[in-house]
């Protein structure tokens, strides 16, 4: 959606620039000084004398038309952009879209993703071409969950839930990161977002019930802290 807004502004801005530059260059060439010191339009245009107000201009119709067209374009663009931003903020209609609801919990320094069946994992698995709704919170300090390539980003606040949504149109592995400075391991607070074809996702989701029966695959916060401490020490840093 953001890409579409950017493309519309880019195309419209380019079109306006081309028209303005072309109009300016046309008149600059048409009325240029030929070097002879004479006015080639002396017999075609009535020039005003010093102190005399210019006449003509078709009674201001050109100014009125140009202003009206510009106003219509600008107002239409503002209205369209506002409607798109409202859609981004509110998301698709739940009655029309079968959205996948996932809870996201941030902690120093990792993420837990809780699925509707209670399965919890440190990697976010989502199906292709399906609306994914995230309910994001934190268990310790302020974090910020974001997936740049999928244009989604929201705060993770302890004791509160913030909402975000996205639709991944292409399969692949994307990076989710924390965008709120939360401690010495902040730069390591990343995880993978795996976008799978719908049938593969359904197969994976069905298997999570068996995984949960034999033990959850999620690393605990203590295990994550141990990993971050080891990595920070190896880099010469100090754990939080």
Automatic annotation (TrEMBL):
Q: In Gene Ontology terms, what is a biological process of this protein?
A: ATP synthesis coupled electron transport
Residue stretches spanning the membrane: 6-26, 63-82
Domain (Cytochrome oxidase subunit II copper A binding) spans 97-207
- InterPro entries, per the entry: CcO_II, CcO_II-like_C, Copper_CuA, Cupredoxin, Cyt_c_oxidase_su2
Task: Supply the CDD domains for this chain.
Answer: CuRO_HCO_II_like_6 (cd13918)
Localization terms from the record = Membrane
- GO CC terms of this entry: membrane
Which GO molecular function annotations are given, in alphabetical order?
A: copper ion binding; cytochrome-c oxidase activity; oxidoreductase activity
As for membrane topology, the entry says: Multi-pass membrane protein
Keywords of the record, alphabetical order, are: Copper, Electron transport, Membrane, Metal-binding, Respiratory chain, Transmembrane, Transmembrane helix, Transport
Top-level lineage group: Archaea
Under Pfam families, the record lists:
COX2
Query: What does UniProt give as the signal peptide span?
Result: none
Family membership: Belongs to the cytochrome c oxidase subunit 2 family.
NCBIfam families according to UniProt: CoxB
Please name the PANTHER family in this protein's record: CYTOCHROME C OXIDASE SUBUNIT 2, CYTOCHROME C OXIDASE, SUBUNIT II
* Name assigned to this protein: Cytochrome c oxidase subunit II
